[in-house]
Every structure is written in structure tokens, then in C-alpha cells.
């Protein structure tokens, strides 16, 4: 995990050179995970709630377009997860409202069953509102596009698919 945080810090420093205006920030809020598996038309799914905290960078590329990488720690029902999204944000006029989209890496930090992959890739979509220049509200949903089940441990010829989808709702402060 230490290597990922160093990589994230280097990414933030590198992007600062391309940005007209850059801010760092903190974010925290409610996290809901939906863990599901599919096999031969059957679905097993479980929802669980928890919280998230993280750091982010807000890189202003133009008046309406920002780039927002983040490193977010999530805790849900004894599961520790690291989320690393890279969002493109589009601001709607001078209203303070924005929409965001981009890829997100999701890494399970706990020791888990060997037939479950620790790393996944998501597609994240969301919306936000800038309450002030420094305080914001944000809601995001990330849909996992990778299969979390490892093929090397499956003893059947049938395909088993599984993933973790996540819902974030929280606030943040940029400084």
C-alpha cells in the first residue's frame, strides 16, 4: 500500500505542472458496497454500509474542465478497500454543479480467499456541487467492469462472474 501512496503523490506532483490552478483536498462520507456473484443465471448479492476518507487533487485545466485524482480508504463490514479514481469533471456554467466520470481502481486490502482477485477496475460516474470555493458535496457510483473471480481456482467449465459496485456520498474540503 505504501508504494501506491508514493505513486499517487508523484502523480499529483506531475499533474500540478500541467494545471493552471491546483488544489489538494480531503473527502469523507458514506460508502455502500454491493458484492455480487453470478453463476448459471443465479445471483448472490450482499449490500453493506460503511464510511470512506481520502485525499484528492483538483487540477483546473480550464474554467469548465478539471481533473480529479484521489486515493480513498473505505471500511465496510471488516473489509478494507483502497479506491483510486481518476475523474474528469465538467462544471455546468457558473452554477457550482459538476458532473464527473472516469476509471477507478479498487483494491481489497484484507487477506481474502484465493479465488477472489484483489484488484478490480471500475467505471465511475457522479455529480457534485461546490458549496463554496473550498467546500463541496459529491455523489458517485462505480460499476466494476472486471471479474473478481479467479479462473485458476474454478473447478467447473461454467463461467462465474463477480464484482464489487460502490456508492459514495460525502463532503470535502479543498485547500
Summarize this entry quickly.
This protein has 175 residues and is mainly beta.
Q: Can you offer a commentary on this structure?
A:
The chain is mainly beta and 175 residues long. Helices cover 9% and strands 64% of the residues. It has one helix at residues 2-16, and strands spanning 21-39, 42-60, 65-76, 79-91, 97-108, 119-130, 135-144, 160-174. Strands 1-2-3-4-5-6-7-8 form an 8-stranded antiparallel β-barrel. Strand 4 and strand 5 (97-108) form a beta hairpin. The longest helix is centred in the N-terminal third of the chain and has 15 residues, at 2-16. It starts with a helix and ends with a strand.
Task: Pick out its properties.
175 residues; mainly beta; Porin; 8-stranded antiparallel barrel; 8 strands
Q: Could you say how many structural domains there are in total?
A: 1
Proportion in β-strands: over 45%
How are the strands of the largest sheet arranged?
Answer: 1-2-3-4-5-6-7-8
CATH topology: Porin
Mean pLDDT rating:
88
Helix percent reads under 10%
Shape descriptor: elongated
- Sheet/helix structural class: mainly beta
Rg over alpha carbons: 17 Å
Largest sheet: 8 strands, antiparallel, barrel
CATH architecture: Beta Barrel
Amino acid at each position: 500500500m505504501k508504494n501506491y501512496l508514493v505513486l499517487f503523490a508523484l502523480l499529483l506532483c506531475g499533474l500540478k505542472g500541467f494545471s493552471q490552478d491546483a488544489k489538494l483536498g480531503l473527502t469523507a462520507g458514506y460508502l455502500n458496497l454491493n458484492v455480487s456473484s453470478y453463476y448459471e443465471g443465479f445471483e448472490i448479492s450482499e449490500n453493506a454500509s460503511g464510511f470512506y476518507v481520502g485525499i484528492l487533487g483538483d487540477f483546473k485545466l480550464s474554467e469548465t474542465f478539471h481533473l480529479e485524482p484521489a486515493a480513498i480508504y473505505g471500511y465496510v463490514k471488516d473489509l478494507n478497500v483502497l479506491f483510486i479514481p481518476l475523474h474528469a469533471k465538467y462544471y455546468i456554467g457558473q452554477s457550482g454543479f459538476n458532473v464527473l466520470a472516469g476509471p477507478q481502481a479498487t483494491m481489497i486490502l484484507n487477506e481474502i480467499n484465493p479465488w477472489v482477485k484483489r484488484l478490480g477496475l471500475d467505471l465511475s460516474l457522479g455529480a457534485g456541487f461546490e458549496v463554496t470555493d473550498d467546500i463541496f458535496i459529491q455523489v458517485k457510483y462505480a460499476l466494476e467492469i472486471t471479474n473478481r473471480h479467479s479462473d485458476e481456482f474454478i473447478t467447473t467449465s461454467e463461467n462465474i462472474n463477480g464484482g464489487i459496485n460502490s456508492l459514495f456520498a460525502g463532503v470535502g474540503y479543498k485547500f
